[in-house]
Structure formats: C-alpha cells, structure tokens
Specification:
It contains six helices and twelve strands. It is an alpha/beta fold and 231 residues long. It is globular and about 60 Å long. The protein starts with a helix and ends in a 15-residue tail after the last strand.
Length: 231
Amino acid sequence: MNSREDILGRVRARIGRTTDRTTTATGVDAVENWLQARQPGPRPAPAGDLLATFKEKSETLATTVDVVDDASAVPATVARYLAERSLPMRAVGWLELDSQPWRDAGIAFEGRGVVDADLVGITGCFCAIAETATLMLLSGPNTPATVSLLPETHIAIVAASRVVPAMEDAWRLLRTEAGGLPRAVNFISGPSRTGDIEQTLVLGAHGPYRVHVVLVKDPAFRPGHGDEANS
C-alpha cells in the first residue's frame, strides 16, 4: 500500500489535487462538465430496426436469441433452450430474477453467486448494444458478475426496450441512470473465444461456451440494474 499511495500521491501532486473531498468533487464535476459539453464524433447511421440488427449481429458471434412478448414466457423459453441442448435443468442467477416461475418450467433456480459446480448462469442486462450485439452488465451485491463469467452457459434476459444503437448510447444511459459507476461494468459479445493456439478458434477459453439471449418485448420489463453504483 505504501508504493501505491506514493504513486497516487505523485499523480495528485502533478495535477494539483489533494485527498480533500472538496478537490475530489471538483475534479469529478470537471470531468462531467467536459462530457456534457463534448460534441460527439461522426457515427454510422443507427439501424432502423434495433432488435433485428441485434439478433443478426448476435448470430455472427455464435450467440443464440429468442424473442418473447411477455416476461412470464421467459422460464419456459429457457427450459426449452436447455432441453434442446441436453443441458441441466438447474441454474443459478441474479436475485432479482428469483420471482420468475422457474419451478413451473421444470428449472431448479437459485438466486445467488456461482460456485465451480454451477453449469448454467442466468442474468439480467442493464442494456444491449445493437451495433455489436454486446450485453452491458453492471455488478452489484444482487447482480454478481460471476454469474455471467464462470458457468459454461450464460443466459441473459434482456428487455427489448433497453437495446440501444451503439456503445456511446450505452454509456450515456449509464451516466443518466446509475448515478455513478459500479465496481464492474462487463461487456459481453458472444461466447468466450480464442485463436491463440495455431489460429484455431476455441470457444469457452476464458468464460462461457454458450451465450443465449432472451429478448422480452414487454416495455414494463427492466431487469439488470446493478445496485452498486454508489457504493
């Protein structure tokens, strides 16, 4: 810790900042003002149908997608996905999803973080990016990042109303709604993969082998708001 404080102390000294809360708050305000005043650079025109674009891009990344009209259809849709791939009908997931009727669909669901024996993890999603088929997940006490990173299969429940055109829109939404950054913001674009060994593509190298998205078109459905932003 002495080395860390020494390095950070030198950085603070060079930029004229102290550990005093007043100067820290002033620095945060300056950054926020800069972000608000900054003019965005040129961007491709957003897709006309964000859901169609997200689904198309997802398929190129080996992410599978189901679309349902109502949140009540999510458990049965997830159960069908698991059964078709002979995957276990047992999952862990974010606590906010515990109220879904998983048992009625034949799924044994536990709202908790994962351990090494858990094979299926189910999460919500703060928002999704159509341009790159990327999921944006915020960590929190009830939305642990491990659920999307450690199991072999990651299933994300995404509100269709939270699909945004591009990365810039996702960050703007976070700054508007979260009131600060959580401990971790994770971006997931398809299953984990690597081509490091003889240029052979291997899935599941550093995370899930499979990523499946269930898009819920009900505008009132909004899972996935990490609750750690101000902690």
